[in-house]
C-alpha cells in the first residue's frame, strides 16, 4: 500500500450529521470505483495518538479531479480532529485497498444494497458508470431512516435519469420522525422487496455495505431469496 502526502481542500455538511471531506488528488494516486483508503492525521491530537488513522471508502469517482470521503460525524477523536483541520492543512492518505469493485462480466447485472452511509463505495461506482456510459444493468437498493439522513439522494435521482441502465429503489425506515414528504418505499429491505427486484434480473451479483448487523441480515435474506454466496460481495468496515 502506498502513502501520499496531500492537503485538505474543503469539507461540508451534506445531510444531517454527515460530512464530506475533499482532498487534493496526489499525482500517481489511482484507484478503482468502490475501493477505500486510510486517511492519516499528520498531527494527531496528543491526547489520543491511537486515533491517527481511519479507513473510508472513496466516494468520488476516478474521473473526478478531487478525492472525497463522506462520513457520519460520530463523536470520535479522529473525526473531531479531521473536522477542525483548516483548508490547505497537510494530510496523508494510504491506499487504495479493497475489492468491493464492479465485476467484469457486463452481461450480469449488479445489485447494490446500501444502508445509510454505506452508500459511499456505490456512489463512486455509479458516478463512474454514468460518466463512461457503461452498458450494464445496475440497481441500487438504498435504505435510510429518513430523507433527512439520505446522503446523495438528489444526485442518485439525477443519475437514474442520465443512465438508462441504472435503477434506484430507495426506502425510508423511520418516516414517522421525518418532516419531509416521501413518495418512495418505506420499511426495512426484506425478502419480499429483494425478490421483487432480483426476479427481474438475469443472474445478478449483489454487493452489500452498511451497518454490520444490516450486512449480516441482508446476506441471509439474499440467500433466502435464492442468491448463492458466490454471488454476494461485501467487505468488513467496523469502527464507525
Ligand atoms: C463496504 C463498506 C464501506 C463503508 N464505507 C463507509 C464510509 O466511507 N464512511 C462511513 O462513515 N461509513 C462507512 N461504512 C460504515 C457503515 O456504513 C456504518 O456502519 C453504517 O452506515 C452506520 O451508520 P448509519 O447512520 O449510516 O446507519 P443507520 O442509519 O443506523 O442505518 C441505515 C439504514 O439501514 C437500516 N438497517 C439497519 N440495520 C438493519 C438490519 N439489520 N436489517 C435491515 N435494515 C437495517 C436502517 O433501518 C436504516 O434505514 C462502510 C461500511 C461498509 C460495509
Q: Strands, helices and their partners?
A:
Elements: E1 2-15, E2 18-24, E3 36-40, E4 53-57, E5 66-72, H1 77-84, E6 90-97, E7 110-115, H2 120-132, E8 138-144, H3 153-162, E9 166-172, E10 185-186, H4 191-198, E11 205-209, H5 212-224, E12 232-234
Account of the protein in words:
22% of the residues lie in helices and 32% in strands. By secondary structure, the protein is of the alpha/beta class. It has two domains: 2-97, Elongation Factor Tu (Ef-tu), domain 3 (Beta Barrel); 110-234, 3-Layer(aba) Sandwich (Rossmann fold), CATH 3.40.50.80. The chain has a six-stranded antiparallel sheet, with no helix packed on it. Strands 10-9-8-7-11-12 form a six-stranded parallel sheet, sandwiched between helices. β8, α3 (153-162) and β9 (166-172) form a beta-alpha-beta unit. The longest helix has 13 residues, at 120-132. The protein starts with a strand and ends in a 6-residue tail after the last strand. Flavin-adenine dinucleotide (FAD) binds next to β4, β5, α2, β8 and α5. This is Ferredoxin-NADP reductase. Keywords: 2Fe-2S, Iron, Iron-sulfur, Metal-binding. One of its GO terms (molecular function) is oxidoreductase activity. Its cofactor is FAD.
Amino acid at each position: 500500500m502506498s502513502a501520499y502526502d496531500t492537503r485538505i481542500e474543503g469539507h461540508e455538511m451534506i445531510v444531517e450529521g454527515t460530512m464530506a471531506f475533499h482532498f487534493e488528488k496526489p499525482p500517481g494516486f489511482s484507484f478503482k470505483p468502490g475501493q477505500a483508503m486510510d486517511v492519516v492525521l499528520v498531527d494527531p491530537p496528543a491526547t489520543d495518538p491511537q486515533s491517527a488513522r481511519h479507513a473510508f471508502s472513496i466516494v468520488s469517482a476516478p474521473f473526478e479531479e478531487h478525492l472525497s470521503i463522506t462520513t457520519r460525524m460520530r463523536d470520535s477523536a479522529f473525526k473531531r480532529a479531521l473536522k477542525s483541520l483548516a483548508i490547505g492543512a497537510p494530510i496523508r492518505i494510504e491506499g487504495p485497498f479493497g475489492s468491493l469493485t464492479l465485476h467484469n462480466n457486463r452481461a450480469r447485472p449488479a445489485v447494490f444494497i446500501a444502508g445509510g452511509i454505506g452508500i459511499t463505495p456505490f456512489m463512486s461506482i455509479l458516478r463512474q458508470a454514468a460518466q463512461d456510459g457503461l452498458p450494464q444493468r445496475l440497481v441500487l437498493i438504498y435504505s435510510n431512516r429518513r430523507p433527512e439522513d439520505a446522503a446523495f439522494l438528489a444526485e442518485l435521482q439525477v443519475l437514474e435519469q442520465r443512465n438508462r441502465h441504472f435503477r434506484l429503489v430507495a426506502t425510508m425506515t423511520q418516516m414517522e420522525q421525518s418532516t419531509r414528504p416521501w413518495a418512495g418505499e418505506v420499511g426495512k429491505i426484506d425478502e419480499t422487496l429483494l425478490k421483487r427486484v432480483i426476479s427481474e434480473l438475469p443472474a445478478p451479483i449483489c454487493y452489500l455495505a452498511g451497518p454490520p448487523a444490516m450486512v449480516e441480515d441482508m446476506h441471509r435474506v439474499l440467500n433466502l431469496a435464492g442468491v448463492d454466496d458466490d454471488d454476494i460481495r461485501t467487505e468488513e468496515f467496523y469502527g464507525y
